[in-house]
Amino acid sequence: MENKRPEWSSYISFIIAAVGSAVGLGNIWRFPYIMGKCGGALFLIIYLLLIAFICVIPLSIELAVGKFYKGDPITIYNKINPKFKIFGYLCLITSILIPCFYFVVGGWILNYMWLFLANDIPSDFAQYFGTLNSNPFVPAALTLVFLFISLVFPFIGLNKGIEKANNVMMPVFVVMLIALAGYALTLSGAKEGLAFMFKPDFSKFNSEMILLALGQALFTLSIGIGIMMTYGSYLKKDVNIIKSSYTLIFFDTLVAVLAGIMIFPIVFTNGIEPTAGATLVFISLPEIFTTLPFSRIVAFLFFILLFFAAVTSGISLLEASLSCYSEYFKMKREKAAVLLFVLVSVIAIPASLSFGILSDFKILNRTFFDFLDFATSNVLMPICTLAICVIAGWKLPLIHFEAFGTNRYTKIFSFLLKYILPVVLVLVLVLGLK
Ligand code: PHE
């Protein structure tokens, strides 16, 4: 006997939650700094082309497979063919491992929100960030608090938990982002910042850029984890998948570009290098914030913005694994939530300490935090994406229509899915292993 599965209460709620999953630290933290590293506007052009013509395909396929087969990732693969169940398990493993490093960053965000709220602002952020991370308890405790907050909503359920959280956080997020971007445009470095973003420098082109853009696009769309399958499985019959995918891509990219408009003027006003990397958000930007007008409120809003972005993505990650426990393994939701909490904690705690007391513990020459990022972003996600593209491309012709509709573009998309995406993804995988 089939259990009654939950459904999105409206199409808009689905779009908001899916955008909530897609828009995350990747947009605000990773996108601007990769773009900075790759010379700005040229990277943006390459990224837009790739996301619109290549990455839209696995996104639509994941949503369509979910909508068609209805289930958590393991159940779906099992329904397609029990031989493919292994890929469902890989999705589950990925959705457990990503929070283990992503939520460490979530913990730092909580800490910085508190700093600016309590007006307890350090004079040297580089030193502060180092001290914070060398503490043997604080980073771990913050990570667990962030995990708890993100787990509450999927635990409550689809309509009352996930939808409600996204329906409140995402609109507030967008308003704050627009306000902060507007504020950044009033600063003296605005012109330079915008030129950096929107004036392409073709001499900076190199092939690594394409790989970085592809990786970023796949990561930001939350593809290759089973999230979009899970979210797609709660869709009603009449939803147009390809249109939904483009809507999602539109908002996700808009947020990434707005984040750039918010960050680069600040960066140029203060003459720091846009290539400052991951430390940009936790060292350079806070330092700059303290020199700006309305500094405390601007900084506090910025970290709330990051917090909303990270929580709404965290919710989707945890829902993908919770759905496996409760549907495929038929566990009670309470038990499933406790199990997930324990699993993530056990791996996330050492990850949270890998900038301090565990910094010498290395796997494949990487700290544990970097190893988790590498194993998921460079290995597991491309494998899971490749699997669904090859399986759907070659074995599930009906899914092509479900994903791409029946119009004159269907054939082109199917061609890309069957022949081009496997090649692209194998390249991403091979080059990513280097
Ligand atoms: N898409 C989110 C971001 O861009 C991150 C994420 C990746 C969330 C993978 C879930 C899964 O930050």
Structure, described:
By secondary structure, this protein is mainly α. The protein is built from 18 helices and two strands. Strands 1-2 form a two-stranded antiparallel sheet. Helix 8 (158-185) runs antiparallel to helix 14 (295-328), helix 14 (295-328) packs across helix 15 and helix 15 crosses helix 16 (368-395). The longest helix is centred in the last third of the chain and has 34 residues, at 295-328. It is globular, with a radius of gyration of 21 Å. The model has no long low-confidence stretch (mean pLDDT 93). Phenylalanine binds at residues 21-22, 24-27, 98, 219-220, 222, 225, 227, 313, 316-317.
Summarize the structure.
With 434 residues, this protein is mainly alpha-helical.
